Each structure stands twice: as structure tokens, then as C-alpha cells.
Amino acid sequence: MCGITGWVSFHHDARTRAPVIEAMTATLTPRGPDAGGVWLGERAAIGHRRLSVIDLVGGVQPMTDGSDVVLSYSGEVYNHHQLRSELRGLGHEFRTRSDTEVVLRAYAEWGEAMAEHLDGMFAFAVWDEREQRLLLVRDRLGVKPLYWAAVDGGLAFASEPKALFAHPEIRPRVDADGLREAYSLVFTTGPTVWSGVREVEPGGLLVLDRDGIRERRYWQLEAGAHGDDQDTTVERIRELVGTAARSQLEADVPLCSLLSGGLDSTVLTALLADELRLREGPDARIRSYAVDYSDQAARFTGDVLRTGHDTPYATEAGAFIGTDHSTVVLDPLTLLDPEHRKAVVVARDSPIGVGDMDTSLYLLFGEIRRHSTVALSGEAADEVFGGYPWFHSPKALAANTFPWLLVTGDEAAMPLNPELDLRMGEFRADTYRTALAAVPHLDDETPTEHRQREMQHVSLTRWLRQLLHRKDRLSMAQGLEVRVPYCDHRLVEYAFNTPWALKSHDGREKSLLRATGTGLAPESVLWRPKNHYPATHHPDYNRGLQNLARDALATEQVRALADETRIKPCLDTPPDQLQWGHRLRLERVVDLALWLDHHQPELAL
After folding, report:
1. What is the pLDDT of residue 561?
2. Which of 46, 119, 233, 413 could crosslink 228 through cysteines, CB 3.0-4.6 Å?
3. Do 224 and 474 form a contact (C-beta atoms < 8 A)?
4. From the DSSP assignment, how many helices (H) and strands (E) are in the chain?
5. What would you report as the CA-atom Rg of the chain, rounded to the nearest whole angstrom?
6. Secondary structure element (H or E) that encloses residue 216, with its range
7. Residue 150 · residue 173 · CB < 8 Å
8. What is the distance between the alpha carbons of residues 534 and 225, in angstroms, rounded to a whole number?
9. Are residues 71 and 63 in contact, defined by beta-carbon separation less than 8 angstroms?
10. Residue 121 belongs to what H/E stretch?
11. What pTM was computed for the model?
């Protein structure tokens, strides 16, 4: 896993601007703490920071084929062994064991059509000197980030916006459209909070040459008939999940699993542990990690997102599977540390986060990084298998809006100054109509299947995106690579086209994954209700958060953006009575202040 950046300009000689590409590349050092390099040509400057995971010696970047083609690549291509064999059969020779060189040779063989040959999580740039052409490619689900912005005579690109802002022609600027994208919670990919900065679409590619910019999707979800019965479907899901897990175990560095004690992470960890024992012997044990707060056992309080304390389930699952399990226990008050909070906001390049849950994840990843360089996570199982409450709620199914807004909505979204006249409700409604128009359907779908397909599509293409952003930024800020096997596109495609009756065949959420997990997880975990990432319940944390929010509101720019009249009741609530949604509102006020202070953006409102 790495960080990539660079630019192409047909108006300027990049060879005279070495300090610029060096500065852009340096901003991504946390993503790639092991090595860095730049390549300069007349029209292109390419930078790379490396986190060494596979072929520690041979995978140095930017990588060239001699002189004509330059690659800066981030991610993992899990089918690189198969592709290497195929490309050798086509006459290609290899100098290294790295998947990076496989991507380089794949471009030489297939050009931009190479994207369809790659299985994995990746974002990369190819500069072709012969054709004077830049190719940007992003993986199908958008696990790895890739941003771009126009510069004179071309464009600049980067794994994170902060690298773009090191280019003298790109400044951090926020307009009304950016605020709507940030605070509407509709999670569009393409536009960002930053004016002029865009994302390459998941499953998309961008080509720049002297004729201009061309974008297209090489992959997207499509509707198809499902002919398998229940037993066959369960067997196929088990096969797909197992294949994805096994393919992502390769690493030349220490590897571990994130084990929360929920169904998703337990099934995944069990499959990984079984495969590791097959490869290394019956005594092999995978490391697993969970997070907890020092007050959680005594103070846990259920809320709209959480039904129970994770640690006992994670401990039981680790013992059942046979992992080398650790629980990272955090003091809730450390989550108030301004340096930790600032590190999170800087990592995300965004004012939108989830406060203590972001900070604790960042600290968890820091502890894991002391022992492991790669971690596997159960992210995306809820989207793939129908795990969220909104898949099962008549109210959510009947609502004419994004279903998560019924759970989070305006209670958790920081209210913006009404004088800005952002017309957020209108923006959300328009965006929702656009989202539904993109959902593929079959002609003979029942109303139930039609609606559930819509729910799964918006969950996979919007809700999941912000979860992947969060996990990527906070893990890579600690130099940790997180892999997400449930994002395997073949699994996603198969589950997307599995009828809802099969997805809920036992009357519960994630029926197919539960059936797959039989024998892999304790019964208590198999039948445990959905539980979201834990939050602290300590009243002293709430009190400290209220104090931080008061300080944030003393800032002129924060007051210009935030609606103080709707925030003040959250400040006056007794700390032990502060509800989750209102607390998250305060978290976002604090993050806004940190974000404004760090980036000093121009506000064009």
C-alpha cells in the first residue's frame, strides 16, 4: 500500500519543477513510510511513497519499463500470480516478484483495457511517453482513493487532497456546493468538499492526452437473474468469501485480522486462520485485534447503533477460532487530546468524521502497527448481505430518501448557518432521485425485490464509500494496510443479484453469511444482533467534548458556518444525559474548527 501523486501539463516543462513534485510526494509519507521516489519528464512529474508489503526489494517505484512508460501504483492486485503467468505466455519478461511490475506489463499488453484484468484494491497512474498520455485507474468498489484537479495545460492527481494542495496552482477552496457535499451525508463520489477537486469514480478510469480528458466506467453493478436454490447459493457464497479471504493473505510482512466479535469479522478471521494453518502447519495462529474503552464494561448504554458490549464476544470468538487475540483498551479521555484529534482531521482532509470513533480507530491502528503491517477487516459485509436496520425497517423501505438519514439525519449532522441558504433538503432530494435512477433492475422484479435492490445499490455505492474512506485514511495515516475481502467484486456481484427471500431466509439480517459461518463461529456470535463500532459512554468525555465545542464556536469562521442556536442546547445538556446524535453534532463542530485551522481554506460562499 502506498501513496501516489503527480501531474501532467502540456504547457510547461516539468523537469524545471522538481521541488514541487518532491513537496507533493512528501505529504504522503505516512501512507508510504518505507521509501519514496520521483520521476521527471518534459510533460509529466510522477511521485510515489511506498509501504513495502510484497517483494520488499524489487517493488521500487515509480517503476518504468526502461524509459517510455512510468507507473505509480497503490494497492494490491490479488490475482497477480495468474496474470504473471498469462503475461509470460504472451512474451513478457519480469525482473521482480512484485504485483507492481505485473500492472506495468499489463498496461504494455492491454492498454487501458488492463483494468478489467485486475482483481484487487488499487489506484494508480500510468504515464506513457510514447503516446503522451496519462491513465488514472481506480478499483471497482473504490477501496483505494484517487483525486485529481485541473492545472494549466493538464491535471494533477494524488491519493489524498493534501498532496494536490502542495502544487502551486491548486489551493484549498470551499464553496456552497462543497458544503452541501460534505454535510448532506449523501456521499457522492466525484465532487468533493474542495472546489475543483474531484475523485476518479470507483470502477472508473480517466485518460488525459492532448485532446483533453476522457472518463469512463469499466465496471459497475448490473442486474442479472439468479438461478441457484438456497443450498447452492449458500455454498457459492462460502466459496466466494473463502476465495477472497485466501487470496488476500499474501504478504512479506506481519499480517493480522480485525476481530470485533461480530458475525462479519468472526467468519472472516476463521477462514483466514484455517488457511494459515493449511499453509504453515496446525500450530499456526493469526493475530487478531479488538478495541475497547476502559469504562465500557461498567458504563455501556445501548443506543440507535449499538446493542451490546463487543469485548466478551471478541474474546470468545478468538478462543473458538484459535487466534493470538489482543484487546486494545483506550482511556476515553485520551480521545480528547487535541493532537490526536488534529491528526485524524489532517488524515481525512475533511471536516466530516465521527469524532471519538475516528480517534479511537486511529489509535487502534497505531497500536496494531507496532506488530503488523497488514490487517484484514470485515468492512462491507452489511452492504453485501443486507445487515443494516434499514433493509428490514418498513419505515425505511417506505421513505423517499437515503435510509441512513432516518438513523443519523439532522440530529447527527452539524446544522449549518441558515444565512448560507444551502437548501440542503432540496439537494438531498435531487441527489436521491439521481441515485435511484442509476439502479439497474430486472423487468420481472416484484415490488419487494425492486425496493431491496435499490436499498442495496445505494448502500454499496454511497454509504460504503464513506466507510472505506474512513478506514483508508485512518489506517494509512499510521502506515497500516487494511484489506477488505467482502469487497471482492465477484462476491458483490453475486450477492447483489441474489433474491431478498434468500438473503433473509432465516428471518434475520445477513442470513447467507450466517449460514456460511456455521461451524466457523460460536453460536453466540452467529445469532448476535448487528452492532456498530463502539463509542465511549464516559460523562467526563462528554463534558470535555462540550468544552472543546465551546472553544470551537469562539472561532469566527466556525460561527460563520455553524448554526449556534441549534448547537447551544447540546452544550447545555448535562454530560450524562447527552444523546448520541447531539454528541456527534458537537464532534463535528470541533472537527470543523480543526479543519479550518489546518487547511486555512478560502471560503467562497
Report:
1. 95
2. 233
3. no
4. 25, 19
5. 24
6. strand 212-217
7. no
8. 38
9. yes
10. strand 120-128
11. 0.96
How far apart, in whole angstroms, are the C-alpha atoms of residue 140 and residue 464? 12
Q: Which fold has domain 230-412+420-526?
A: Rossmann fold (3.40.50)
- DSSP sequence for 6-29: EEEESSS-GGG-HHHHHHHHHTTT
CA-based max dimension of the chain: 71
Grid cell of 376 as nine digits? 484484514
Query: How big is the CA angle at 478 (ends 476 and 480), to the nearest 5 degrees?
Result: 60
Predicted confidence at residue 304, as pLDDT, reads 62
The sheet that has 255-258: what strands, in order across it?
324-330, 287-293, 255-258, 374-376, 481-483
Residue 441: count of CB within 10 angstroms of its CB? 12
Domain with CATH 3.60.20.10 in the chain: 2-217
Q: Which residues is 325 bridged to in the sheet? A: 288
| Secondary structure string (H, E, C) spanning 467-531 | HHHHHHHHHHCCCCEEECHHHCHHHHHHHHCCCHHHHCCCCCCCHHHHHHHECCECHHHHCCCCC
Instruction: Assess contact for 8 and 167: CB atoms under 8 A.
Output: no
Number of CB atoms found within 10 A of residue 418's CB: 10
Tell me if 586 sits within 8 A of 411, measured CB to CB: no
| Residue 259: φ, ψ to 5° | -125, 100
With beta carbons less than 8 A apart as the criterion, state whether 71 and 47 touch: no
Return the active site residues: 2
Residue with cell 439537494: 427
DSSP assignment of 259-315 equals: --SSHHHHHHHHHHHHHHHHHH-TT---EEEEEEETTHHHH----SS--S-SHHHHH
C-alpha 542/C-alpha 519 separation (Å) is: 41
Interatomic CA distance for residues 123 and 32, integer angstroms: 14
Q: What is the mean pLDDT of each run of 10 residues along the chain (605 residues)?
A: 94 96 98 96 98 91 92 97 98 95 97 98 98 98 98 98 98 96 92 96 98 98 97 98 96 96 97 96 96 81 72 96 97 94 96 92 98 97 96 95 81 81 94 98 96 98 96 98 98 98 95 96 93 87 96 94 92 91 91 96 94
Contact indicator for 487, 379 with CB cutoff of 8 Å: yes
> Which residues make Cβ contacts (< 8 Å) with residue 141, sequence separation at least 6?
121, 202, 203, 380, 460, 464, 468, 487, 489, 492
DSSP 200: P
Give the residue from 197, 209, 46, 9 showing the smallest Cα distance to 112.
209
Q: Where are the alpha helices (DSSP H) in 223-262?
A: 230-247
Q: For CATH 3.40.50.620, list the domain ranges present in the chain.
A: 230-412+420-526
